[in-house]
Amino acid sequence: MAVTITTSFYEYDTPDWHNLSTVVFTSPNLVSPNSAGTRSHILPGELPLATWYEITGDDMWRIYNRQIASVESFYPAVDPTTTVSGFDLRNSITFEVTSGENYNNRLTAWDSVTHSSTNNFLIDSGRVKASCANYSWSGGTEDAPVNVEYGGSVDPIFQLPENPFPPQYNITLKGNTTSGINDNYYGDWDMIYSLPTSGRAGDYLIVRPWLDNINASVPYGVHDFVITLHYSYT
Amino acid sequence: MPDGNIDIFIESSFFAVASGTVDIPTSFWAGQLESIGQRDIVTDYALSESIPASINADAEAFITYSGAFQSGYTNVLVDHKTSTSTSGVEVALVDYAIPASTSGLTRTEDAELEYFTGYTQISGLRDVRSKFIAGETFIYARNILGTYHIFGGDVVERDYATNYTAGGYYTPSIPGPPEDQVINFMATDFYQYFTAGAATISATIQQDCELFLAGYPMEFKPQQYTYRFHIATGDEGDTPGADWEATVISGSVLDIPLDMYSTATTSGYYNADAVCGKTSYSGIDFPVDLVSYSGEVETVSGTISYFYKEVICAVSGTRGYTFDIGLLSLKISNFSLEEDGYSVSSGTICVDITDDVYNVVTSGTYFIIGETIVSGTFTPITDGYTMCYDSLDDFAIMTGATTVTVHASNDNNDILEQDFYLTSGYIVEYDNRQQNYGFGSTVVVRGTAENMASCPATGVDAYAFETLPKEGVSLGATIVGIPWETKDLSAEITPKTGTIYFYGKTFRIEARAKDFAGNVMEPFTFEFKIEDKPE
Predict the structure, then answer these.
(1) How many structural domains does chain B have?
(2) Are residues B471 and B495 in the same domain?
(3) B221, B435, B493, B498: least CB-packed within 10 angstroms?
(4) Residues from chain A contacting residue B216 (CB–CB below 8 Å)
(5) pLDDT tens per residue across span B424-458
(6) Are residues B393 and B510 in the same domain?
(7) Which ipTM score applies to this complex?
(8) Global confidence as pTM
(9) Does B277 fall in a domain?
(10) Interface test mutation site (partner A, options B220, B247, B322, max chain A beta carbons within 10 A)
(11) Domain that holds residue B215
């Protein structure tokens, strides 16, 4: 069955969902929203790099005024728009299956769209981080869901039934590599579209990207990379 | 020997072995009384550097007791890890054999094999075998946990071979040897053979084998994955006989032959699925991922309920988003105030603007205080300038929290701005300026401290003291220090009697003065004359 996956983010100040094009790490000093392509790059270590989400040819929004602290821990949600504990729509990217099923999903980072190399300073040095969770919900709205079900939950009510793959926090994304017992990717799990009549909405993948250890040791220049969701479907 | 756990560690180290083969034989023969409890036989074979010779690192455990096991487990754990680039032939061989004459095994026996390669390129032949041979009566599950990981790019001809041979009365009630094989890159062949015994089997046989080829890199093209399931005779069950599934997430497999031989009188049914992902992205489209999926089913005698074989050729896709990160060579550093620091408003604020690639442009570098652009003075430093600003009105604009933006530019048209947040912080006053400090007065000293930076608050304190009354002395002099801004203080000489000043007399005055800091003024002398008495 063919699968359709959308990628979006939630802009909180003027609440709305937007389709994502590019994630920009740049100065937090710019006024949000701003025209897509506006950059005021700042030096590593001088100021927190803000996370901006951009739509091609349209606007870009600053998501939370600054990047989350470099060493992020599992922190409780403080806002009713929270989906899964530890995640917030305002600083995360959401993948949603709107049709079909996809299997063996794996989220990781590559240097380019060819998905074959990690030859990138930020990736190779382990600075590309993300926290990830796949979930569905059975009440509320998409931007304020309740009864969130996700893998690994102790409470069976909140257990994602078809795929109990737990959330993972602050993992390093680095191709298909493994460091010791830790995989440098998030996966593998399945996602299935839930019919509206089932009373359950999903499945979703929520990803909060961030960069670690951005300081003067990061060389001057462009360090663009790609975070990719790989999946199979029939 | 007492009961319990006994670990035997033997370490043999060799220095500067020229060439050839070095064997390290280590044997441990346990007697009957010593075969109680757990025995760990640990063999570490470490190479500190590459050597041009073949290496045999075998760990063997023989159990010669032919009777029934009474208790406990038998574990054979072999780890073979190659951490760096090597060349030549490497063999990791695990033979786990229970003699055919053995009977009455009633416990689980696990043989674990873990094989890891390093992250770097490995060339040459590679032959990894895990062979498990059970005895005739094989009642419970026997697990060979074969974990085989290749991380680096390997140029290999034979990757992995597993022989699993059960005895003549193989009657497992739970699945047999599971295999966990994860190949990330450039595997060639897989061989996995499962052979059941030749005698009548009273229960069903279920042999599950699942292979995930998880290599997203496009170069992953194993030539062949062979799986052979051979039941010699006698399967009388009717539950699944064999489930076999091979899943290729991406990349391609050229051939997956699956052979099954059965002489069972009434065999179970067999499922064989192959799910192969098709890789397609960025205009690169592999036409066919699974080139061949061949199979042979031969029933020597009896029947097979059915043989179900399904090939699912799936497609794979990707969905991602790019990250745009550009870091400047332009730097702003060393702002003259640290966080929570302070300075007097009459001072200056300074910051370093440097660029180790391009030139800092002073005309495009300035402060923005509030919304007002103010130019600073530039002092050259390495790779840039120190920019300072001294406000003529002592930063009178800072009546509250104020954003000071440092705007810097270079001749590559890069612009860097950084905000610093300042506030007027502390005002200390003493309102004692118009008081009479003269003789016999009450002087009130009152101080006020006002904090406008954080947690705004005002504090006041005061006290009073009495000055002494004026005393009459001959030619005594007094100085009265009011008003407070007066620089020229007058001195009054008061003669004790009013008749000391006579007409026509000349007077010479010598004044000496010393302040509370100990400064002594040079004596000041002058003369004056009282006019003559009027005629």
Answers:
(1) 3
(2) yes
(3) B498
(4) 106, 115-116, 175-176, 230
(5) 766 676 666 667 777 788 888 888 877 766 667 78
(6) no
(7) 0.84
(8) 0.49
(9) yes
(10) B322
(11) 6-46+76-313
